[in-house]
Amino acid sequence: MQQRVLKVLEFEKVKEQVLEFTSSTLGQEKVKSLVPSKQFDEVVKWQEETDEAAKVYRLKGNVPLSGIYNIRSHVKRSAIGGTLSPQELTQVASTIRVSRQIKRFIEDMVDEQVELPILSQYVGKIIVLADLEQRIRNAIDESGEVLDSASDTLRSLRQQLRSNESRVREKLESMIRSSNAQKMLSDAIVTIRNDRFVIPVKQEYRGHYGGIIHDQSSSGQTLFIEPQAIVQLNNQLQEIRVKEQLEIERILMELTAYVAEFEQELLTIVYVLGELDFMFAKARYANKIKASKPLINQDGKIALYKGRHPLIPKDEVVANDVFLGKDYTTIVITGPNTGGKTVTLKTVGLCVLMAQAGLQIPALDGSEVAVFDSVYADIGDEQSIEQSLSTFSSHMVNIVDILQKVDFNSLVLFDELGAGTDPQEGAALAISILDEVYRRGAKVIATTHYPELKAYGYNRPGVVNASVEFDVETLSPTYKLLLGVPGRSNAFEISKRLGLSEHVINNARNQISDDTNQIENMIASLEKSKREAENDRQDAQDYFKQAEKLHKDLQNQMIAFYEEKDTMLEKAQEEAAELIEKAKAEAEYIIRELRKLRIEKNAEVKEHELIEARKRLEEATPKVNKSKKTTSSNKKAHTFTSGDEVKVLTFDQKGTLIEQTSDKEWVVQIGILKMKVNEKDMEYISTPKQKEVKPVAVVKGKDFHVSLELDLRGERYENALHRVEKYIDDALLAGYPRVSIIHGKGTGALRQGVTEYLKNHRSVKRARFGDAGEGGIGVTIVEFK
């Protein structure tokens, strides 16, 4: 990609925004070097990486990447025998800690059944260097100070230091507390000069304490003297400090050598953490701009659903649908300079560059972007003062360069093509340039304010007109892209709104040819038709979704009803059988007692009467019929055809075959429901005779799709009852068994009115107030006969 194109389309500004979400200089390096790829497999791989990171960020909200350092130079210096400073060793330990945490973090998510193949592969390369990390932590603290625990020798030396320093301070403090000290000392304090303890002595008493002068004040009136009495103690302190420094250097060399042993492992950790930081920076940026993963293709197709410019604030940007490369390869956006055309151009170009760089794009799910070999753009004021070129000349230099390189796998963006010269010549040149680029097979989006190009899209296949909608009422563009509608001038309408007199406007209209007026009127009509079609399409989609949801709900309710019915019937039969069994057992007991009485006391009870009584008890026991979910094995084979009446065994209901969807599956009409059923779950009943079908007039208005509930809250009493009457009729026509009417609690007048109306309706079986979970007395549940 040309660097100039990346700058013109503001790709560098997008990278600056991504930089804000990196956690280390490693990630920043990756972002700064990011350029779009033209390799399809590489783009797909990058998008998969970003999407996987976005999944983790969406599920967990945070990723443990804080504390990463670029330790490549540290590791390489350790490998060639250098010694690392305490701060550098601390950075090595910190980086190891982050690698250990992110590895455990990803592995825990995988254990939770989250599919992360790419991230798992990355963290699988990390070797956990817990021992190296611990050795550094035991020797050096977070601020880079070598700890006493680094070695026994260092601990002993520092104990000696503290002990000797204490003795020196005690000696000096006894001196400054003496009776003569107040007049001989400038201040009664102990200080340090050249790493040796001294006291501030006035110039005239310099010989009193003897010893060594280490410094003097700026005025020369105070000398910082090391008294003779503590010179030996200070010498001992210096000797211990030298030994301490030697021991610290030995410890650092030992730790550095240990770091060098894991050179390759540490370099791998740096590489993996850099990649992960880069991936999660892209994921966090995608979350910020509400972006989604685009589908990637090699066919030159672009489909942006509600595409937005990522650099415009979300509360200001206008989302647009843009389609290119399928039914047409060129879009010509015409109309006056209202500010929306260039933004649309940049939005498409920037989304393509972002997608090819592995970034998710600010558009809805399902959006699609092609991988282009090159993206060319001629946008903005290209006037060159250095080359003494006009705006037009500068544009032409750029366009000539584009025409020399463009091919079938290129995306070309022209802004105000042909501008800056004579309108008639400019328009002719623009048409010729578009023809040449179209002939090369490239995908093109061009903006122009020349009216001559309005007919361009109608005269050539593969080209479509477009415009940016303008609201004459507010005298401002809506920035909404209208594909298929060329732009038109709004000069007369704007002038009228601003107060220009009618006769001046009419006189201006007369100056324009009839053909131009007809074209403008045609465009205005197209704009209106386009808006109406969009609204109708949206309404149709809403109705379809509502009907689909209703069908699914009813199907689930029907399935649940029949399953519940079978379960309850089985349970009732089982309970009845248990009662009979209990009665039989009781009867058997009584019969045994009777036999015993007959034998013992010669009672007149005959044996055949006892047998007959037991037989009657057995016949009274009900047989439990378990619901059958599968067809019986002795079912007759039958070749099903459309129109056959069948029994759906899973629901124990009759239905009619509508159409066959696969070898063994049919769409069956059961009452008002249609559902797919396998042949093994059906039993053939009969094929109905053909009947003469009389035409039936069916009227379907806009209210044909009826909701399962009617909300009357806020309605006036008379209007509410009128809506109830119409709603009940619609619900009956739709075949609903029950509906809900929401009237609220309020004063109770509306509730009373609805109740009275339903009580007298001939088709209402029962009306009751809702249960606690259904809305209580604020809702009336209506069941139909």
Question: What secondary-structure arrangement, pairings included, does this model have?
Answer:
Blueprint: H1 3-8, H2 11-19, H3 25-32, H4 40-60, H5 72-79, H6 86-111, H7 117-123, H8 130-139, H9 152-176, H10 181-184, E1 191-193, E2 196-202, H11 206-209, E3 212-216, E4 222-226, H12 231-260, H13 263-288, E5 295-297, E6 302-307, E7 320-324, E8 330-334, H14 341-356, E9 368-370, E10 374-378, H15 391-405, E11 410-414, H16 423-440, E12 443-448, H17 456-459, E13 463-471, E14 476-483, H18 491-497, H19 502-510, H20 514-601, H21 607-620, E15 645-648, E16 653-662, E17 665-670, E18 673-678, E19 682-686, E20 709-711, H22 717-734, E21 738-742, H23 749-759, E22 764-769, E23 779-784
Parallel strand pairs: 5-9, 8-12, 8-13, 10-11, 11-12, 20-21
Antiparallel strand pairs: 1-2, 2-4, 3-4, 6-7, 13-14, 15-16, 15-19, 16-17, 17-18, 21-23, 22-23
Helix pairs in contact: 2-3, 3-13, 4-13, 5-12, 5-13, 6-8, 6-13, 8-12, 9-12, 20-21, 22-23
Defining traits:
single chain, 785 residues, alpha/beta, MutS, DNA mismatch repair protein, Chain A, domain 3, 6-stranded mixed sheet, 16% strand
SS elements, strand count? 23
Please state roughly what percent of the residues sit in beta strands, choosing from under 5%, 5-15%, 15-25%, 25-35%, 35-45% or over 45%: 15-25%
Query: Counting H and I runs of at least 4 residues, what is the number of helices?
Result: 23
- Name the assembly state: single chain
Q: Per CATH, which architecture of the largest domain?
A: 3-Layer(aba) Sandwich
Q: CATH superfamily of the largest domain, please? A: P-loop containing nucleotide triphosphate hydrolases
Average of the residue pLDDT scores: 81
Low-confidence stretches: 382-388, 626-634, 691-703
> Residue share in helices?
40-55%
As a whole number of angstroms, the C-alpha radius of gyration is 45 Å
What global shape is seen?
Answer: extended
Order of the strands making up the biggest sheet: 10-11-12-8-13-14
Looking at the structure, the CATH topology of the largest domain is: Rossmann fold
Q: Biggest β-sheet: count, sense, barrel? A: 6 strands, mixed
Assign the CATH class of the largest domain: Alpha Beta
The number of distinct structural domains comes to 6
What structural category do the secondary elements indicate? Answer: alpha/beta
